[in-house]
Amino acid sequence: MEIDKKIIIKLIQTLEELKKSLKGIDIKSKEDVVEEEIDLSNNIVIKSPIVGTAYLAPEPGGKKFVEIGKKIKKGDTVMIVEAMKTMNHVPSSSDGIVKEICVTDGQPVEFDQKIIILE
């Protein structure tokens, strides 16, 4: 397959013109989005131990493991992360009160992603 040099030259010229016309305009890409900062100085962050799908209750429509404001103890299950059809219970790493639940039911989660914040 041979590339036509005239097409490449025309493409480069068009890109240069576009670059000149956008000079001084601030363009933001998706990569520029900064995650919301939360004061974590006195808080404990529980992170996902694996990649999978997060579930806040043991079964659909069931009572959630944790709610905002609920007091939990170290070792209590805070949610389930399903990976390869295996339900993995995620335990709390310490005692505390649930300040924020950072994922929704059925949401995919990554390894080491923040899932719960405790006070």
Task: Name the CATH superfamily assignment of the domain at 38-118.
Answer: RNA polymerase II/Efflux pump adaptor protein, barrel-sandwich hybrid domain
Strand order of the largest sheet: 1-8-6-3
- CATH class designation of the domain at 38-118: Mainly Beta
The largest sheet is: 4 strands, antiparallel
Helix content range: 10-25%
Which runs of at least 5 residues are low in confidence (pLDDT < 50)? none
Q: Got a strand count? A: 8
| Named CATH topology of the domain at 38-118 | OB fold (Dihydrolipoamide Acetyltransferase, E2P)
- Percent strand equals 25-35%
The residue-averaged pLDDT reads 85
Q: Which series of helices and strands comes N to C?
A: HEEEEEEEE
Radius of gyration, in angstroms, nearest whole number = 23 Å
CATH architecture of the domain at 38-118: Beta Barrel
The computed structural class is alpha+beta
Total number of helices:
1
Distance between the termini: 63 Å
Please tell me what the overall shape is: elongated
